[in-house]
Amino acid sequence: MTPLPFRPLNAPSTRLVRNAARCRACGDVIESTSKNDFRACACGKIAIDGGLAEQRAFGEARYFEDLSERESCEGAP
Question: Which of 1, 33, 52, 69 is most buried per CB count within 10 Å?
């Protein structure tokens, strides 16, 4: 019997590889690359923060287009 890779019950099956968004009001593409890298678009309607450690988004959903990318974690179901 082959053992399954150990994964805690709350472990994510994907990881964030790009934290980015486009503002539907002004068209700006913003990207946060580190934990305390707060970025806002030119018109101020959206902002993101957290880099690859913590993904946080600010603003109204109608202006926010998520461009973030995720990849599967090794050993994920």
Answer: 52
The pTM score is 0.77
Query: Which structure tokens are listed for 50?
Result: 């957290």
With a cut of 50, say whether residue 2 has pLDDT above it. no
**What is the secondary structure of 4-70 as a DSSP string?**
PPP--TT--SEEEEEEEEEETTT--EEEE-STT--EE-TTSSEEEE-TTT--EEEE-GGGEEE--EE
Per-domain boundaries in the chain: 14-67
CA pair distance 77, 70, nearest whole angstrom: 15
Distance of CA 24 to the CA centre of its chain: 18
